[in-house]
Amino acid sequence: MPLAIQFEAMAEDALLLRFGSTIDSAINARVHAAVSCLRQRWPTLECVPAYASLLLRFDPEQWQRPDEGTPHQHMGDAVLEALTDLPLAPTNSRLIEIPVCYGDTDGPDLAEVAAITKLTTDEVIARHCAAEYRVAMLGFAPGFPYLLGLDPSLAVPRRTDPRQRVAAGSVAIGGNQTGIYPDELPGGWQLIGRTPLRLFDAATDTPSLLTAGDRVRFHAIDQPTYRQLATGHAP
Fold first, then answer.
1. What whole-number distance in Å separates Cα of residue 175 and Cα of residue 159?
2. pLDDT tens digits, residue range 4-62?
3. What sign does the CA torsion over 143, 149, 151, 152 have?
4. Residue after which a domain boundary falls, among 53, 82, 111
5. Whether the predicted pLDDT of 152 surpasses 90
6. Shared-domain flag, residues 160 and 61
7. pLDDT of residue 1
């Protein structure tokens, strides 16, 4: 395989696959390609992807063998065989469009981001919307997507004075990543806009709007459109 995988037993029913040790778009794409491949082979296998690793939760009894070896070893051998021809990226990922109202009260840090990057606010918005992102992983809070693919020119440090309350739907930049706050939460990322879409709803069958491996594109909307979408009315 072009990319070596390290295996680590995490519990009697958990196996960790390490594809690398850095936050890297190419490595993360391989992680999600592995998820697609393994779910096709074993539809009930629980896969939990992260930046450069993949946790597999499995039934140890199903991987008991009469010969020597542990269930982790048997599963690891089967996983390696399944991933022999692993593609560079998943081939069946969803593309999700996220509307964003940039600036003003919805994006109070947009002007600061523009000043740091030596761009105009319009240029920041245009570059943020031009990229296609991948949901590297969900974390920090239920439904919070860490998105890789940010234009390097938009990378800015996190705030030195984190906010105690960040509004649900806030779109933000933290370092070389962008993300969306799924609920009102504390946070220190730079807020550049806000989406009217609900990122997480525990009362639904599929609580998270986004899943790890999804592709995301942002597009700019104005305040009236934001209000219409927020109230469930098409613009």
1. 10
2. 899 999 999 999 999 999 999 999 999 999 999 999 999 999 999 999 999 999 999 88
3. positive
4. 82
5. yes
6. no
7. 41
Q: Which of 29, 59, 82 is the last residue of a domain?
A: 82
Pick from 1-10, 23-32, 95-104, 213-222: least confident: 1-10
CA 172, distance to chain mean position in Å, is 13
- Count CB neighbours of 133 within 10 A: 23
Closest CA to 129 of 100, 88, 108: 100
Q: How far is CA 94 from the centre of its chain?
A: 12
Whole-angstrom Cα distance, residue 40 to residue 34? 10
- The CATH number assigned to the domain holding 226 equals 2.40.100.10
Q: Are residues 146 and 190 in the same domain?
A: yes
232 compared with 198, residue with greater pLDDT: 198
Cβ contact 128:220 at 8 Å = no
Residue 67 — left, alpha, or beta (φ > 0 → left; ψ -120 to 50 → alpha)? beta
Dump pLDDT digits (tens) for 65-94: 877 789 999 999 999 999 988 887 777 789
Contact between residue 124 and residue 191 where contact means Cβ atoms under 8 Å apart = no
